[in-house]
Amino acid sequence: MAAGDVGELLVPYMPTIRVPKAGDRVYKTECSFSYDSPDSEGGLYVCMNTFLGFGREHVERHYRKTGQCVYMHLKRHMKEKVKGASGGTLPKRRNTKIFLDLESNGDLNNDDYEFEDEAKLVIFPDHFEIPLPNIEELPALVTIACDAVLSSKSPYRKQDPDSWEEELQVSKHANTLVQMDNGVRIPPSGWKCSKCDLRENLWLNLTDGSVLCGKWFFYGSGGNGHALEHYKEMGYPLAVKLGTITPDGADVYSFDEEEAVLDPHIAKHLAHFGIDMLQMHVTENGSRDNDIKPRVSEWEVIQESGMKLKPMYGPGYTGMKNLGNSCYVNTVLQAIFSIPEFQRAYVGNLPRIFDYSPLDPTQDFNTQMAKLGHGLLSGQYSKPPTKSDLIEQVMKEEHKPQHNGISPRMFKAFVSKGHPEFSSNRQQDAQEFLLHLIHLIERNPIGSENPTDVFRFLVEERTQCCQSRKVRYTERVDYLMQLPVAMEAAVNKDELIAYELKRREAETARRPLPELVRAKIPFSACLQAFSEPDNVEDFWSSALQAKSAGVKTSRFASFPEYLVVQIKKFTFGLDWIPKKLDVSIDMPDLLDISHLRATGLQPGEEELPDISPPIIIPDDPKDGMTNHFMEPPDIDESSVMQLAEMGFPLEACRKAVYYTGNMGAEVAFNWIIAHMEEPDFAEPLAIPGYGGATFPAAGGAAVVGLDNQPPEEMVAIITSMGFQRNIAFHALRATNNNLEHALDWIFSHPEPEEENETTSETMDLENHVNANILAESDPEGPRIKDGSGRYELFGFISHMGTSTMSGHYVCHLKKEGRWVIYNDLKVCASERPPRELGYIYFYRRIPS
């Protein structure tokens, strides 16, 4: 075809061809709906308008949905190298035929194979092809666009402030951070938020050393956002998450930059508060971690090193590439997608999910879950070598490059977006990622059932005042059972003492360490420790109207269909050295916890009065030891309701009425107009001089129980927006009567009759349509799958290393009657599954 003919052919499509701008993500290495790539047989098609990538079986869907006709087809070919006269390969030289910026592959250095990249424009629906480069025939704009696509960097690199890449940047505050010389020293354990009693998701502010809780996550976990409130009040920008500090760094978040960041001076900043991060390089025996490995190290046992493991191929036996400390993601996803409910929800609904996917499927959770599930279960990316390949490998003693397994880069980048820990490239806790994934699934409903309901159960907590002997029963939702390690119950104490003596002697004499002896803990002892009462710190007895000693026991108010058991192996030693209990627990194949069934209030027990503790306000905000009781401020609730009915946030209305001295709704309205652009406009009322105490709305209780009645005024506000009364009750109860969170909850749980009314003309709104169309669950459903307390083990995740912030994760799953080990890309039949060394165990209920 002549040059003019090619130009004329492209004229009708010129308005749809774009040149990538700064910040555009060009997906030229991976399909949005599958794990096809230029390496795949059909290559990859890149849309010249949206720059999304599509495999051969998915590009037609995008063409039909968008009408976009011009795509760039990318293909990498592999062929044997030309042999020289002596029979060997020709001398190595730079391969100018490789121009695609694909993920590095060790096989590219294979001495017997070479690679060649091919690019061409394809015009749909006739599949007319124009080879590239083609400078003479193509219009200048098309040539520029093609060059820009081919030279574009990975979409996972940091390109602009709104990008969702994993690669962290150095904070602009790191070099100039001013730290207060206030004498604060942080202990290695026992932390809790200084503004509430939370003991998880805690952040250390690197300016003043305050320890505060992180942001509130969906379904009530995470925190109360006091760390963010502290930043808004004081302006101190950097905080580090407690529990993530290792010699290699820590998870640092910048409130000002609103993202996870790097702090090159983190060791100095932590040392200011008494945390010697550099000492963590040294283990408790004085040697550097992993310098000397005992002969029976957990690394060898868990990975079944030294054994000839048979590779497994086909559906359900697909490996996952380690992206660099991403094995915690791989193991959790392998376990999740071995459960039928998750397979049905995502892979079973795959055609429907893909058909209703938004314009940018890379930013849709359900699309990416369905894509990943199909990648693991289809067998498309786990094909055994052919007989001819095996013969060739034996005859030539060479390895032909294979492309088995999937790379979850797109999935990880999306699900970790905005998360200070998972968005980093550092190792993380698999248990925390499992809960994070559950929360994401909760927020993106699909189909008639929520697959995470199989983990969901009710816990009954019985709290008793030791002095009055009165009790209180409450219930809460949980997703896993945390089992303490009963070290005192070790059955080989004599061996442990002898080993410790030999180890110290060897260290003193600088001899090789003796063979490791692990503490052998009976599972029954761990189960007994779980069922024993725990002391309640800072317990306030409503019977005595004062602080008292209290104990709490936990029981199962319902048993889940699938029971997840976490062994609490991780703690902190002196000097902040992360410590892992290297123990062996005889985890049973068959588990019966029926005796842990909750019983409720028993005859003869007397309940604690339903009275909330008074609000404690320090005389001096800096002195928490001296305090007095203070009643909530007097606020004209009628003025608050008038303003709230106008559509303003309830907490903002309360502040407006308070700060204008209860002078009426009109004066308060003027205050709202003057302050509505402030970042803390909708935050709860915090009265200056009272230590940041917040005051609930009238009728709101400080402690929200299961039977707590939401304040009627909040219900009225939500129903005035057009939502049903029962939805308002559900939302407020699920969010502890927080109006803002309740509205978020409602929009995350759309009503069935509204599912087809959600339309959008922008890509941002389009990304939420999938959940609205697919959500059909009945909000009135109990969502508890109670049944027998008898279970069978079908999987476990093991951790190697001294801390969850380092080391490696491996997963073992029981499939088709035999155990299989999933070690990133390696999937093999297991010979000796190390059940006694696991970290997270998965049990399925045995039918009655």
TrEMBL record:
Residues 634-675, 709-749 form the UBA domain. PROSITE patterns: UBA, USP_2, USP_3, ZF_UBP. The active site is at C327, H808. It catalyses: Thiol-dependent hydrolysis of ester, thioester, amide, peptide and isopeptide bonds formed by the C-terminal Gly of ubiquitin (a 76-residue protein attached to proteins as an intracellular targeting signal). Its EC number is 3.4.19.12. GO terms for biological process: autophagy; cell population proliferation; maintenance of unfolded protein; positive regulation of ERAD pathway; protein K29-linked deubiquitination; protein K6-linked deubiquitination; protein K63-linked deubiquitination; protein stabilization. Residues 318-846 form the USP domain. Pfam families: UBA (PF00627), UCH (PF00443), zf-UBP (PF02148), zf-UBP_var (PF17807). It comes from the Eukaryota. PANTHER family: UBIQUITIN CARBOXYL-TERMINAL HYDROLASE, UBIQUITIN CARBOXYL-TERMINAL HYDROLASE 13. Belongs to the peptidase C19 family. This is Ubiquitin carboxyl-terminal hydrolase. It comes from Podarcis muralis (Wall lizard). The gene is USP13.
